[in-house]
Structures are given as structure tokens and as C-alpha cells.
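User: Predict the structure for this protein chain, please.
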Amino acid sequence: MSAYIVEPKTINRVVSYCVIDRDLCEWIKFYHHYDLDTEEGKNKFANDLYKMNVEAVNQRYNEINTIKPIKFEFTPVNQFQALKSMHCLRYQCEEGDVPETELFKVLDSIIHFVEHRIISSLPQYEIAEWE
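Assistant: Here is the predicted structure, written as C-alpha cells:
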């Protein structure tokens, strides 16, 4: 498996969707203490995700990539693009002990939240039997 450091646009899409989805935003604030209603909170979340990605790549290749702070920029994003960006970020972070970190688990939970929302809104899901 190879890994790379994602572009800031990927992280911006992830954080932007978390800001847009009010239920998700409140869940992150309550359980994980990132206040995505503030610029400071959005920047902290974005930079923590970025640092996690850099750490995974460093562990994968035994490198020391420096962490340059990124500035969060809101990006209009739909749930499908957000989910694909989340999947990309998670995949790039599946190295070393990073999957054991709390932030990786937060990202994984966010992905499950978005997947559930998408799937449960599909007509095929609605008409499936509850057994």
C-alpha cells in the first residue's frame, strides 16, 4: 500500500461538509471538542487532520515531512464529494499506528455517519423489508 499527503482541498472538503451538516457539526463539538462554528475550531480540525496524514506518510516511508500549517478555506461540497474526500483521507492515513489514534477513529465515525445518511435516504433502502 502506498500513501501520500493529500492536497489542502481534500481536507477543506471534509471540514466544510462537517460545518454544513449541522447534526454532524454538533456531534463533533459535543464528543470531540472541535467547535466548527469558530474559525479557530475549523482551522484546528483541518490542521489536526493534516498532521495525522503527514504522520501516517512519515511512518509509512520512515520520513520526516515537515508540517506546514494550512488555513482552512470553506469549500461548497455535496455529500458525495465529501464522502469520497473522507475515504481518500482515511486511506492515506492507514499507516503505522495512526489508525489507533483518536482522530482517525473520529474520521472513521464521520464517514459512517455520512454513509448512513446517504444510504438511508435512497428509495431502494426505503422499500427494503425490515426483518
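The mean pLDDT is 96.
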